[in-house]
Design brief:
The protein is an alpha+beta fold and 138 residues long. The protein is 25% helix and 49% strand. It is built from three helices and seven strands. The protein has a seven-stranded antiparallel beta sheet. It is globular.
Length: 138
């Protein structure tokens, strides 16, 4: 089993960042390279279909916890060498208008070394963090 985790503090109030993170269908607004995102369903069980560089990625929202500012989701379909992918994004109010995000995942590598999959997610998560920062730059 593999996993990846990133912790980042943003100079953004928690409610502002949560409006983005909690908007499961808004990934095309903050993730570089995602050209479109279409939602099917509402709440837990919602599936988002994203197109990036001609590839289709489908993810399913497992849980959304408004009170604790946390979502969990899984990959349904993607051109990635992993199975059993599950991820979460958790926000914590750090005071003074700052918010901590913990974005982490677990997965099984499929036919490639764990380190290769870690590098893939390191790139995705870094791009996502930069996208959040760019979206919320003041």
């Amino acid at each position: 089993m593999g996993g990846y985790k990133v912790v980042e503090v943003f100079d953004v109030p928690i409610d502002t960042l949560w409006a983005t993170v909690g908007g499961f269908g808004d990934v095309d607004k903050w993730m570089p390279g995602v050209e479109s995102c279409v939602l099917e369903g509402e709440g837990a069980g919602t599936v988002r279909t994203m197109i990036s560089d001609g590839n289709t990625f489908k993810e399913k929202l497992l849980t959304i916890d408004e009170d604790n500012h946390k979502i969990t989701y899984t990959i349904v379909e993607a051109p990635l060498p992993v199975t059993d992918y599950e991820a979460s994004m958790q926000l914590t109010d750090k005071g003074d208008g700052k918010t901590e995000m913990i974005w982490q995942s677990t997965w099984e590598p499929a036919g490639v070394p764990v380190e290769q999959v870690e590098e893939i997610f390191k790139g995705f998560y870094a791009a996502g963090i930069q996208g959040f920062k760019a979206m919320h730059a003041s």
